[in-house]
Amino acid sequence: MSQITLYTQDDCPPCTFVKNHLKANNVDFIEKNIKNNQYRIEMMDYDAFATPFILLDNQPMYQVDMDKINDAFNIK
């Protein structure tokens, strides 16, 4: 089964959209809010500088690709 990690920040509408979509489809995810400096550094280690930054099966997704996310979790 696929695994997804979201690097997010407060007041980020795209972050909220992705989280709500995953919750609505009963997809478990790990959220790492970058106000925690450790998570900010982790994200920057991937050369990512905007949220939401997504790791899908440990592969970085620099732009939100809902089709790819939906396919990974069999969301119709």
Question: What's the pLDDT, averaged over the residues?
Answer: 97
Q: What kind of oligomer do you see?
A: single chain
Strand content: 15-25%
* Number of alpha- plus pi-helical segments: 3
Measured between the Cα atoms of the first and last residue, the distance is: 16 Å
- Helical content band: 25-40%
Number of strands: 4
Spans of at least 5 consecutive residues with low confidence: none
Please outline the major beta sheet. Answer: 4 strands, mixed
Order of helices and strands: EHEHEEH
Shape assignment: globular
- If you compute it from the alpha carbons, what radius of gyration comes out, rounded to the nearest whole angstrom? 12 Å
Structural class: alpha+beta
The largest beta-sheet arranges its strands as 2-1-3-4
In short:
By secondary structure, the protein is of the alpha+beta class.
Describe this structure in words.
The chain is of the alpha+beta class and 76 residues long. The chain has three helices and four strands. It has a four-stranded mixed β-sheet, sandwiched between helices. The longest helix has 12 residues, at 13-24. The model has no long low-confidence stretch (mean pLDDT 97). It comes from Staphylococcus pasteuri_A. Pfam families: Glutaredoxin.
